[in-house]
């Protein structure tokens, strides 16, 4: 199992102290049959990940007062949710980075909880055409696009979402591109499921990061390995329930 160093755009951040809060939950989503929006799937016991960008306001919304919201999301999903510090921004943007890690069903549970919180305010939709920008290694984007754009077109049609991949930009020494998804909560989740399913077929989709520093809360080093494909039962056909009000 390979352990990776911080990418160059986070290399200036000091290493985090030993973990004090928000350790990975000891139970997973599959341990509880009554888990909210439980996602079934065969994970093979391998850790997977997804990274995406959020604004400072959205980061605060996910973290919650004294970390209460993010800890609750970790407990409900079984996934680990890391958020970069306020001074650790994705190069060329004013956005912070969220890293979610765990088994595939845990990732999808966590993404559902996070997006619900960002898209809904009480029972009202804040933005019916919201966007989320996934951070994807440049070397994996070719397979995601497919020959003549066929793979990306198929994913776009199946998800009924708008999906755009940013041009490769080496000006910041980046080895990642942004995959921006636009659509309803349902469509975003379906697109994320399809994109991750495709990326996990690629052995190059390994995570170039050993740890990311929590906002206010130290993170412990996390080990990752290359992951294989999953056979996960899709379940993004119906609208999920409204998320909680995002208060600060």
UniProtKB/TrEMBL annotation:
InterPro entries for the chain: KH_dom, KH_dom_type_1, KH_dom_type_1_sf
Domain K Homology: 46-119, 128-200
SMART domains, sorted: KH (SM00322)
SUPFAM superfamilies per record: Eukaryotic type KH-domain (KH-domain type I)
Leader sequence residues: none
Region (Disordered): 15-46
MF-aspect GO terms: RNA binding
PROSITE patterns: KH_TYPE_1
The keyword NAD is assigned to this record: no
Alphabetical UniProt keywords: Repeat, RNA-binding
Name used for this protein in its record: K Homology domain-containing protein
Native species: Brachypodium distachyon
Gene behind this protein: LOC100827556
């Amino acid at each position: 199992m390979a352990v990776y160093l911080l990418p160059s755009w986070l290399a200036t951040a000091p290493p985090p102290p030993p973990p004090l809060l928000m350790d990975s939950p000891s139970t997973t989503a599959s341990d509880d049959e009554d888990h909210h929006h439980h996602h079934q799937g065969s994970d093979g016991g391998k850790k997977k990940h997804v990274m995406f960008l959020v604004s400072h306001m959205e980061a605060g919304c996910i973290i919650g007062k004294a970390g209460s919201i993010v800890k609750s999301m970790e407990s409900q999903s079984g996934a680990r949710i890391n958020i970069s510090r306020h001074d650790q921004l994705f190069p060329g943007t004013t956005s912070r980075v969220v890293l979610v890690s765990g088994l595939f069903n845990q990732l999808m549970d966590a993404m559902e909880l996070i997006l619900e919180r960002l898209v809904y305010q009480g029972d009202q939709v804040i933005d019916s055409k919201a966007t989320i920008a996934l951070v994807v290694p440049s070397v994996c984007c070719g397979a995601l696009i497919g020959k003549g754009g066929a793979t990306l077109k198929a994913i776009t049609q199946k998800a009924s979402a708008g999906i755009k991949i940013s041009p490769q930009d080496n000006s910041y020494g980046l080895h990642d591109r942004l995959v921006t998804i636009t659509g309803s909560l349902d469509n975003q989740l379906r697109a994320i499921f399809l994109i991750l399913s495709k990326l996990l077929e690629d052995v190059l989709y390994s995570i170039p990061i050993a740890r990311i520093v929590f906002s206010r809360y130290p993170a412990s080093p996390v080990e990752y390995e290359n992951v294989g494909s999953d056979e996960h039962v899709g379940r993004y056909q119906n609208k999920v329930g409204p998320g909680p009000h995002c208060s600060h």
